[in-house]
Write a structure and sequence with these properties.
Length: about 80
């Protein structure tokens, strides 16, 4: 009888732990999905900011490779 009570106690504890672990797992998954959405939004915002900078950088590189950088000083200052 004692053996049966102890065995049922272990089984009940195991079931309780599984339920608790499942709740924690679902909470962590929700948190991960939210973090991924937030990160995706941040990346999209950064790409919007980076595109004009990339265009400016390309223009600046083209100016540096030209022979007449000194004569285009105003352009150089504008793009930098």
């Amino acid at each position: 009888m004692v053996f049966l009570a102890v065995t049922l106690g272990f089984i009940a504890e195991n079931i309780r732990e599984n339920v608790s672990d499942h709740r924690k797992e679902m909470e962590l998954i929700r948190s991960l999905v939210k973090d991924l959405r937030d990160d995706g939004a941040i990346i999209i915002d950064q790409l919007k900011v980076s595109k004009p900078r990339l265009l400016y950088s390309d223009s600046l590189i083209n100016l540096v490779h030209e022979d007449s950088v000194v004569s285009k000083k105003a352009d150089f200052i504008f793009w930098s």
